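[job 0412] stage=complex_fold ligand=nicotinamide-adenine-dinucleotide status=START
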Amino acid sequence: MVGALGRHLALAGFMGAGKTTVGTKVAELIHRPFVDLDAEIEARHGPIPELFEQSEPEFRRLEENVLAEALAGPDSVLALGGGAVLSPLNRERLKERAFTVHLEVDVDDAWERVRGSNRPLARSEHEFRRLYESRRSLYADTAEAAAVDPEGVLLAALGIRVGRGERPAVGTAALIADERVLELHPLEVDGETHHVPAGEAAKSLDVVERLLGELGLSREGTIVAFGGGSTTDVAGFVAATYLRGIAWIAVPTSLTGMVDAAIGGKTGINTAEGKNLAGSFHFPQAVVIDPDYLRTLPEEERRAGIAEVVKTGLLAGREVWSLPEDEMIRACAAFKAAVVLSDPYETKGRRAILNLGHTFAHALEAGSSYRVRHGDAVALGLLAALRLSGQATDDVEELLRPEPVEADLDAAWAALKRDKKGEGVFVLLEAPGKPVVTTVSDEDARAALSALIRQ
Ligand SMILES: NC(=O)c1ccc[n+]([C@@H]2O[C@H](COP(=O)([O-])OP(=O)(O)OC[C@H]3O[C@@H](n4cnc5c(N)ncnc54)[C@H](O)[C@@H]3O)[C@@H](O)[C@H]2O)c1
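[job 0412] stage=complex_fold status=DONE, emitting structure tokens
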């Protein structure tokens, strides 16, 4: 099981941690129902202070029933009452049916938020602090991850960790590493090491065949992918197919990898017919992001990553590119995690928004026989999408400075039509933060494409 995929996402934590506020926001972002256990109890049985007054054991029994019912329903975001984890039965049921995140809060902040409320256990500060201490370890033991805000919950829900010095925690593993990256950043795991060529060359059937032959892991083993998006794509694909699928962990080292490629379970390789034409959905158990690896990333690779950051900012309606680097990466990774959680296997159309600007980008890459770099093509693609949307292009122009490129318009147009399978559907923006999947006439699309090509 990977994070909250295919199971409930439960938030546990002390009174005042913000479970309702954070839960409501997360549920909206990942398109799941939100169930507030306390509100549910009150709706059915009356005010909690009164229920508590009458009999705490009886209240706990009602709480158990309401939780069991919610867990039997469709995958949701659940805000648990502060004391729900006291019940061994609840803890067991949560373990079976939910991914539980401990929403942490400082005791002083919690007290500030709840003092003066009518919560039965928040009447005396002394008692409140005592209770906080006594419950803390219970939350930590029940939960599989901890967070303090919506972004943290979203990241945890897909097993993503962001932080300087973060390293994958694995037992026996096989490291599959971009050879150049491994030279720059020696990473050791307990087990075998396999090299793949630096960059896109790794995404080939030959490399997959070699790795499948070399690997000596059992079904319980784990593959650790270490490199940019090319490495995580190929290593994830190998993990999906070796012995019919084993666990893997992604350790992205490029900006594109950290904000995009390593997140979301899409793995794949290129074939003679084109990019990413063979692949599989196979979610990594964990994505371990250490922004420190970026210090050796070549400038042009960084620019390519920034193009994805700008795409994310446009989709999220937030100037994520202005944030300090670590926060920027965290925000982008959390945004992608939310979109992915809302549509993990691309069956509901929601993941499609992540293609903003990419339809034009792929067309330019193909129309230039892949001489145009992906990052430059994405920058131009975003420009075209914004123009077709009637939205301001200033941010893209200032941040990415896209310049028209040499490409064959007819070849690019043919590639675009192929990419769209003749549907004429594009991702545009009604406003920053409001992506729409809509049709564009051939005439407008071709004119937008043409404007990206040097005449
Ligand atoms: N699976 C997905 O959802 C998804 C999403 C976006 C992109 N992708 C794929 O990701 C690939 C692009 O990813 P990428 O831009 O990370 O490219 P990449 O993996 O090809 O790496 C680009 C270059 O950067 C080097 N590099 C990486 N990290 C480095 C570091 N820390 N220091 C020095 N050099 C470093 C690599 O050796 C390589 O030469 C494409 O194949 C694309 O299809 C996949």
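DSSP finds 19 helices and 15 strands in the chain.
[job 0412] exit 0
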